[in-house]
Amino acid sequence: MADSSRDEIWKAAYYTLYDSGYNEIFSDNIMGKWQHFDDLTKVLAAITATGSSAAAGLAIWSADGFKQVWVVLAALGVILSITSAALRAPERLKAWANSKQEFGALYVELETFMFRMRINREFSVDEFGREFEIYRKRYGEAKQRIPTDKLATEKLATLSQQALNSRIERSTLSL
Fold it and tell me: What is the pTM of this model?
């Protein structure tokens, strides 16, 4: 009975570790998309805002082709700034960063938990069972805080799972 209970704790810990790792990588991937958008918006807004006033008196602005490029860049900067504010990009970025951090910490703690099981194969089922319940509770709470996002696509999910599978293959943990 104790050996099958130990096996069940191991399997449950493994699946929770896997799901935590997936959510960490997924959060990182979607955070990267928001970070690119946010960085582009900030850079374009900064260049067009400060560049317009500083370069207004320069002779280069009298060239028709450059004026048109500048108008397009300035308009794009304004549109991206408005879009960023409307989509609450900085807030989303922070929420995904928190999600990545939460699942990343849980992954490492579960990995350590599983290493301890592997080192001490006669671990206390009751003690480890109680400890695992705490990890599961944390996982459930973190799962509830995952933001909903239009950038969460099937392609991103597949890439995240592939990255996790590679990480697991390189790990010393396996079922």
Answer: 0.79
Q: pLDDT tens digits for 9-56?
A: 999 999 999 999 999 999 999 999 988 888 888 887 777 765 555 455
For the segment 71-93, what is each residue's pLDDT rounded down to a tens digit? 676 677 777 777 777 668 888 88
Tokens, residue 99? 């999600």
| Domain-located, residue 113 | yes
Handedness of CA 135, 157, 24, 102 (dihedral sign): negative
Containing structural domain, residue 136: 2-170
What sign does the CA torsion over 76, 77, 78, 83 have?
positive
Does residue 15 lie in a domain region? yes
DSSP string, 5-18: HHHHHHHHHHHHHH
Length of the chain: 175
